[in-house]
From TrEMBL:
Transmembrane segments: none annotated. The keyword Repeat does not apply. It comes from Candidatus Corynebacterium avicola. One of its GO terms (molecular function) is 4-hydroxy-tetrahydrodipicolinate synthase activity. InterPro entries: Aldolase_TIM, DapA-like. Signal peptide: none annotated. Keywords: Lyase. This is Dihydrodipicolinate synthase family protein. Belongs to the DapA family. The active site is at residues 137, 167. SMART domains: DHDPS. The lineage of its organism: Bacteria, Bacillati, Actinomycetota, Actinomycetes, Mycobacteriales. Pfam families: DHDPS. The keyword Lyase applies.
Amino acid sequence: MFTLPPGIMQAPVTPFTKDFEVDYDTVEKLVNFHTETPGNTGILALYNKAEPHSLTIEERKKIAEVTIKAVDGRLPTIIHVGHPSTDVVVELSKHAESIGADGIVAITPYYWATTQDEIYAHFARVFSSVDIAVMAYNNPGGTEAGAVSPDVYLRLMERFPNFVGMKDVSFAMDTFTEYSRALQEARPGFSIMTGLEWLAGSVPVGNIGSFGSGGAVAPKLTYDLWDALQEERWDDAYPLQLRVAELIRHIKYQYPSSVKVAMELMGRPVGPCRPPLPSGDEDTRRRMEHVLNEFNIPETEKYGW
């Protein structure tokens, strides 16, 4: 069974044309950029900053297909299949398996205020629909249900050997630490990741990496942080984490349009966000220019494709 590689996996945005159509040629170009960037350990397609909630089911499937074809086995590739409908998540999961994805990741159904038992039933049906690796995605701030109990994950773990990991976006160290303790005690080697590159505080308590957002703009900076933590160079890791934190602080303003603005400033234009999301105003552009210049990112990172 596939296991998640330690490190930072990149999650591409969705490029759009000026008419808000998916730009599949740039999808391929962007996936190739991330795949060929030294330090990247995998690709996560259709993650939140890819605006999956604004895409049709057919668009999501085609982006997944273009991604798998572009990666061409060079890195592990995971498809985010989250949706409020269990039927749709099962459909997207089966599609991901059919096109050769290494795994899927499914968020707790958003919008609905589901109970813990209903969340378990949702994941159980999704996990049983495929044989490839599956991951759960805990995002209490983005779902009406709130945080998922560790007991739900433990029940799933007992039943599904293909349940290989989870991503926690609670941004709460007590929550993450309890997940890490409970789940890794139950199954040593079970993979737990954080959202964004909040690594310095979480790696010592079991975090194996993250799905990158800062890495879309400054991949070398985030990989340098990861390497410093793995080599226990704490004096290097601390200032690197502070830089990454400042970059993330600006990225979270008008996210994900801020990411697209920063990518354009780094010579990798990917078009606007699809409505209702804004496409980045002048304030966003000034913010991103400031943080890029403050950390000398245009000179220390690759410019362009």
